[in-house]
Design a protein that fits this description.
The protein is mainly alpha-helical and 119 residues long. The protein contains four helices and two strands, in the order E-E-H-H-H-H. Strands 1-2 form a two-stranded antiparallel sheet. Helix 1 runs antiparallel to helix 2 and helix 2 packs antiparallel against helix 4. The protein is rod-shaped. The two termini are 35 Å apart. 8% of the residues are buried.
Length: 119
């Protein structure tokens, strides 16, 4: 799942099914945490179940989000993309692959709202 380009690792993107799994995991976890209030009124055990399911789901979801963020930063740092862009250094094929991965990764993120860049 990792392309080796002159000792630089550019990760491949995840499949659509995996992306959708984590999206739905985060959404269902949020619903479970909100159902605690209703379930607690009727059944204390059920409310604890919703709590634990919601918290465990959130832990997995945010661990995945952290992993994605560290992959993006790793590509930026290993290819020194920010410095190359700031200094207008011509980009190599590896740089374009890394930039393509970062842009693809941002474009498929369900929670990212990209504001226009202003210089």
């Amino acid at each position: 799942m990792v392309n080796k380009l002159n000792n630089i690792h550019v990760p491949e993107g995840y499949s659509l099914k995996r992306i959708q799994f984590y999206f739905w995991l985060g959404l269902v976890s949020a619903i479970f945490l909100r159902l605690i209030i209703i379930a607690d009124y009727y059944n204390g055990v059920l409310s604890k179940l919703f709590f634990y399911l919601g918290v465990i789901g959130y832990l997995v979801f945010f661990a995945h989000r952290y992993h994605i963020a560290t992959r993006r930063v790793s590509v930026l740092k290993s290819l020194e993309l920010l410095e190359k862009i700031e200094t207008r250094t011509p980009l190599s094929e590896d740089d374009y692959r890394g930039l393509q991965y970062i842009m693809w990764s941002l474009s498929v993120s369900k929670r990212i709202k990209v504001a226009p860049f202003r210089h």
